[in-house]
Amino acid sequence: xxxxxxxxxxxxxxxxxxxxxxxxxxxxxxxxxxxxxxxxxxxxxxxxxxxxxxxxxxxxxxxxxxxxxxxxxxxxxxxxxxxxxxxxxxxxxxxxxxxxxxxxxxxxxxxxxxxxxxxxxxxxxxxxxxxxxxxxxxxxxxxxxxxxxxxxxxxxxxxxxxxxxxxxxxxxxxxxxxxxxxxxxxxxxxxxxxxxxxxxxxxxxxxxxxxxxxxxxxxxxxxxxxxxxxxxxxxxxxxxxxxxxxxxxxxxxxxxxxxxxxxxxxxxxxxxxxxxxxxxxxxxxxxxxxxxxxxxxxxxxxxxxxxxxxxxxxxxxxxxxxxxxx
Length: 326
Known about the structure:
Elements: H1 2-29, H2 33-38, H3 44-54, H4 60-72, H5 86-121, H6 126-140, H7 143-157, E1 170-171, E2 176-177, H8 182-215, H9 218-225, H10 230-259, H11 262-267, H12 273-282, H13 286-314, H14 316-324
Antiparallel strand pairs: 1-2
Helix pairs in contact: 1-4, 1-13, 5-8, 5-10, 6-8, 7-8, 8-10, 10-13, 12-13, 13-14
Organism: Devosia marina
Transmembrane segments: 12-30, 100-121, 133-155, 188-207, 246-270, 290-314
Main location: membrane
């Protein structure tokens, strides 16, 4: 297993170096950082001094290694728009994005697995047809339209939930959370549901399809012939083998939720990293854009690494293949 993890770590480092190179190219060649930081009233001497201080006169490879070294320390320069350290801006907004991702992923995972199992065990029930038909909403409608619809129903018409913002938050020193206040919990409901619908539908359909396939295998028939109870067959044998591909898809979708919550954060004015990126694109705030690119890559690399390790633990075929040297 250590060799397996070492290979995955090496691949992750290669991926992050490639992404860092792309981010560096964006940082270096999209716009002029000196002009953005000094403004129009600066002189040529001011430009030359700042270029020297930022190391922009150094050779290309030295600038790249300097960028990588700073990125390893969490330093991506100063935001052109807000004139604050980019790492500080991201850390201020990261708790909001992570809490939104956690809430939406929890909804998608719990309901997706439960509904997937239910529709697989009762494929001809009327309720299964209703669930499968309703699930088409999650894959057919765009995220922003779902969000606007929920805002209209629950915020405008029924007036039971807020339509924007994060609500009141509690500062724990190293984390600002909205889970400890009533307004914070009410504020996260609509964006979490909006962000979870696509993932919920995907997980539900995947669990249903995998479980139906597993229930048709020979060892399930053998388990029935042995006289095992239906509960033991469904949850002790079928569900366990169903969850192997679900782990992979769920991990990737969690990465997507964290990295690409841009539309949901924009619709609900959620003060997360995604909305920060959208505002930065509007004014070509290159340091924030480059940092967001590295952040997205890091999220996917870490989650993929965790998924690979879980897959190795859950699937005995990988362990047997590693032992035999394949």
